Amino acid sequence: MVLKGRVAVVTGGTAGLGRVIARTLTDAGATVVSASRGAPASGDRFPVDVTDRASVDALVSGVQDRYGGLDILVANAGISRPGPLVGLPVSQWDEVLATNLTGVLHCVQAAAPLLRASGAGRVVTVSSLLARRPVVGAGAYSVSKAAVETLTRVLAAELSGDGITVNAVAPGVVDEGMGRQILANERLWGRLRGSLASGRAATGDEVARAVLFLASPDSSYVNGHVLHVDGGLDY
Question: I need a labelling partner for 148 at 20 to 30 A (CA). Which of 110, 133, 142, 175 fits?
Fold first, then answer.
């Protein structure tokens, strides 16, 4: 039980990959709060809109009141609005960046005091293979995830003096959440599969175990790193 006694928040934690991550951290002994827009305010679930700083503040305050602190933040909430950038409505571009990028910043800003008090705070952001391998039709998502990787490195430098590590997991194609849309696209998946040493998609558990490593004491000397969990893309 490597995370016994630790309190974690997973945004976007009630569905898809986030739900698998939350389960994995729970199995490792953590008390896990799964937060999402549709979550009920009960038990181990909290509602949150990461684009709204007041909503994020309420989440963190609620976690502090209920559990007395916070040790681990997994900033997983994300959306995609497909379409070529030259024709993408600016409102959809703004929506993707507000959720995938600014939402991460909101969460870290709100959680930083509790993570600092933890003495060994962990932040794990979630990027994507599309951060470095963009495809036509997923431009806004690709840009947002590339920015998340830079944000991760900046935050790692800023927070290292507080005993907080900040790292990212960059999954490849996963058989959970938005990854299922790629698997359902025979043309896109056929092209990507040929670039994978593994020749297959990842399971949600395989990605979640990478998150667990970065959230655990085992990663105490890993900071500002982007961990690619992609089955050997282009190897």
Answer: 175
What is the Cα–Cα distance from 106 to 116, expressed in whole angstroms? 16
Task: Please give, one letter per residue, the 3-state secondary structure of 30-85.
Answer: CEEEEEECCCCCECCEEECCCCCHHHHHHHHHHHHHHHCCCCEEEECCCCCCCECH
Is 67 catalytic? The answer is no
Closest CA to 57 of 122, 111, 94: 111
Q: Which domains does the chain have, with CATH numbers?
A: 7-229 (3.40.50.720)
> pLDDT of 91-126, one tens digit each?
999 999 999 999 999 999 999 999 999 999 999 999
**70 closest CA partner among 107, 20, 28, 102:** 107
Q: Is the pTM of this model over 0.85?
A: yes
* Cα–Cα distance measured from residue 75 to residue 201, given in angstroms and rounded to the nearest whole number: 22
Torsion on CA atoms 108, 111, 116, 118, rounded to nearest 10: -130
Q: Which of 67, 141, 221, 235 is catalytic?
A: 141
Residue 89, classified by CB atoms within 10 Å of its CB into exposed (0-12), middle (13-18) or buried (19+), is: exposed
| Burial class of residue 147, CB neighbours in 10 A (0-12, 13-18, 19+) | middle
φ, ψ at 134 (rounded to 5°) = -65, 150
